[in-house]
Specification:
There is one protein chain. This protein has one domain (4-379): Rhopdopsin 7-helix transmembrane proteins, CATH 1.20.1070. The radius of gyration is 24 Å and the shape is globular. A hairpin with a 2-residue loop joins strand 1 (359-360) and strand 2. The chain is built from 12 helices and 4 strands, in the order H-H-H-H-H-H-H-H-H-H-H-H-E-E-E-E. The strands form 2 sheets. Strands 1-2 form a two-stranded antiparallel sheet. Strands 3-4 form a two-stranded antiparallel ribbon. The longest helix is centred in the middle third of the chain and has 43 residues, at 211-253. Helix 9 packs antiparallel against helix 10. It is mainly alpha-helical. The protein has helices spanning 8-41, 49-79, 81-84, 88-116, 122-148, 156-168, 175-180, 188-196, 211-253, 263-302, 312-335, 338-348, and strands at 359-360, 363-364, 368-372, 375-379. Keywords: Cell membrane, Disulfide bond, Endosome, G-protein coupled receptor, Glycoprotein, Membrane, Receptor, Transducer, Transmembrane, Transmembrane helix.
Length: 380
């Protein structure tokens, strides 16, 4: 058993996460109590106290899980030398950082506005928060796209350029047009009408987009990355299927009554199973990405062409569905990997030797790896 003081860094880190989460929760509960008086005058608007508490609990869990999950990914790669050797993990760490910023800088303020149905931070911070929202969620999607691409010929310079692009390109569809008001051109009257639909004594942070911005933003932030991901994962699936067929043909050709299983055959069978598992994992990743983001970006393009008739509640639901993707990414890209899971246990259990790399009779058992379409997947 380890001395208690050896766990102090982990305890302090956990207390730090809990303090941040408690601060947000306390602020929300304070706003809820202040709003009880207003509910008596606006009984048909917004949420009741019970609904607010339920919603607060759900959003707090989502935010906390996103923060902890993405922090674990970043710390695990920084501490584990073997994880740092895999090129894919540079994108995973940068993805975790983007998702962490979403869960710290965007989601809490969105939760406060959603629960309270009022924006209390002023018009300028509304623009900043909206710009951060577009920037960080787009950067997250770009990282998902880079992870799916062929990295067989990747060099440190190319990796650095791709990472820089993941952060720089979203700036041109977030801070630049939003701060300049390009998204409002031609729809100022629609925005003012939307603001009047809220309580007359409260302010709101309304973000609406005209047709040019809706199309440009959606194409850059979602449809192009989506197309590249579909193409990349389709190639991975086809390659894995071809490998499996080739292995099966070789096994049938070498199967004779007097033949015995050779080590090469056993290795081929193991590789086929590993590649099949990798292809299935990629399908799960792609499915979750589409499920979380497709509703929002389809609505984002359609709404300006139907006179902005999509209900605000639908917008909010689709937006938070996309936010949830930032909390799912650590599970999809890291928790499905046994090397990451072991690194997480070491961190959470304060370097407990029981969770060091497993061995049998003193020999280390490496994780299974497969390379499909130039992408190395570490599986068990």
């Amino acid at each position: 058993m380890q001395p208690l003081h050896s766990c102090s860094p982990c305890i302090h880190a956990a207390l730090g996460f809990s303090s941040y989460h408690s601060l947000i929760s306390h602020h929300l509960l304070h706003l809820i109590s202040e709003d009880d008086t207003l509910n008596a005058h606006h009984s048909n608007e917004g949420f009741g106290s019970v609904e607010k508490v339920v919603l607060l609990t759900f959003l707090s869990v989502v935010i906390l899980m996103a923060i902890l999950g993405n922090l674990l990914v970043m710390v695990a790669v920084c501490r584990d030398r073997q994880l740092r050797k895999i090129k894919t993990n540079y994108f995973i760490v940068s993805l975790a950082f983007a998702d962490l910023l979403v869960s710290v800088l965007v989601m809490p303020f969105g939760a406060i506005e959603l629960v309270q149905d009022v924006w209390i931070y002023g018009e300028m911070f509304c623009l900043v928060r909206t710009s951060l929202d577009v920037l960080l969620t787009t950067a997250s999607i770009f990282h998902l796209c880079c992870i799916s691409l062929d990295r067989s010929k990747m060099t440190p310079v190319r990796i650095a350029l791709m990472l820089a692009g993941c952060w720089a390109i979203p700036m041109f569809i977030s801070f630049l047009p939003i701060m300049q008001g390009w998204n409002n051109i031609g729809i100022v009257d629609v925005i003012e009408k939307r603001k009047l639909n809220h309580n007359s004594n409260s302010t709101c942070c309304v973000f609406m987009v005209n047709k040019p911005y809706a199309i440009t933003c959606s194409v850059v932030a979602f449809y192009i990355p989506f197309f590249l991901m579909v193409l990349a994962y389709y190639r991975i699936y086809v390659t894995a299927k071809e490998h499996a067929q080739q292995i099966q043909m070789l096994q049938r050709a070498g199967a004779t009554p007097e033949s015995r299983p050779q080590p090469a055959d056993q290795h081929s069978t193991h590789r086929m199973r590993t590649e099949t598992k990798a292809a299935k994992t990629l399908c799960v990743i792609m499915g979750c990405f589409c499920f979380c983001w497709a509703p929002f970006f389809v609505t984002n393009v359609v709404d300006p062409f139907i006179d902005y008739t999509v209900p605000e509640q639908v917008w909010t639901a689709f937006l938070w569905l996309g936010y949830i993707n930032s909390g799912l990414n650590p599970f999809l890209y890291a928790f499905l990997n046994k090397s990451f899971r072991r690194a997480f246990l070491i961190i959470l259990c304060c370097d407990d030797e029981r969770y060091r790399r497993p061995s049998i009779l003193g020999q280390t058992v490496p994780c299974s790896t497969t390379t499909i379409n130039g992408s190395t997947h570490v599986l068990r």
